[in-house]
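Risk register update: the risk of archive-format incompatibility is retired. Evidence:
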Amino acid sequence: MEGAELVFTGEGCLDHQTAMGKAPVGVAKLAKKYGAKVIALAGAVVDGAEKCNENGIDAYFPIIRKIVTLDEAMDAGNARQNMVSTAEQIMRLVTAVSAA
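Archived output:
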């Protein structure tokens, strides 16, 4: 992560347990050693996820774009498209803020 300004990490469901040392927080702690900002993407974001902000994740976003069944959400093609679409919008925001 040396030299990175922005690091993406993710998990199926971001919640208070994530902040207790799951992989996204581990990634965030490493990224912070190098001065990088951290964005987490998750299939779902539920109550308690704000604890992740206290543990190195600067911002988090759910990737689900509409109400779907669990099977639809877990479908690899749907999940990929949702992740790509969400990441694109995040990068558009980062670019817009950087240009300002």
